[in-house]
Amino acid sequence: MAAWVMKAAALAGALAASACSGGAPGSDTADEGNRVSLRNLTESEVASSAADREFRLKGTLVPTPSDTRSRHFLLRERRTITGNIVAILREERGDKVAYARTEVDCARRLFHVLGVGPSRASAEVATTYDGPLRPITGLPLREELASFICERSGTPLAKA
Questions:
Q1: Is 89 within a domain?
Q2: Going residue by residue through the chain (160 aa), what tens digit of pLDDT does each one get?
Q3: What is the total count of domains within the chain?
Q4: What is the dihedral of CA 131, 39, 77, 132, to 10 degrees?
Q5: Is residue 139 part of a domain?
Q6: Domain assignment of residue 159, yes or no
Q7: Which region holds residue 2: left if phi is over 0, alpha if psi is between -120 and 50, else beta?
Q8: pTM of the entire structure?
C-alpha cells in the first residue's frame, strides 16, 4: 500500500507541474512566476476524457463570459479558519474534463490555485505551487470565478 501512495503522490506532482504555464500579460496565465492556467486546464496533460458525463457531483454552472469555449462548474466550497474560501471547480471543454482546487480571499480580492487533477479526488489532494494569493485585477476568468464563489459562500467579492 505504501508503494501505491508514493506512486499517487508522484503522479499528482507530475500532473500539477504539467498544468503550470506562462502566458501573455493580461491573460489568465500571466504571472511573474508560475500560474496554473484555469482557462486552458482541459488542454493540459492534467485533463482526462469525459466520455462518461454522469458526474456524481453535478455542480453549479458558473457564468464565465470571458471564456466561452469552456464550461466551469462550482462543485463545493468551504470556509477556512482564516475566512478564505476553498472551492473545487470542474472545467469541461469538448470531450475533456479537468478539476481545480482554488482559494479565494473575498475581502482582499485575492485568488490562487491549490491543486489540479483529472478527477475531483486528485485535485483535492494534489499540491500545485501557483504562488501566493494574488490580485485578480486584469484576470477576467479568475474574477468571474472568484465573484461567483464568494457570492455562493455568503461573502460578496469586495469592490475593485
A1: yes
A2: 444 333 334 444 443 333 333 333 333 443 345 577 788 788 787 777 776 666 667 899 999 999 999 999 999 999 999 999 999 999 999 889 999 999 999 999 999 999 999 989 889 998 887 789 999 999 999 999 999 999 999 999 999 8
A3: 1
A4: 10
A5: yes
A6: no
A7: alpha
A8: 0.75
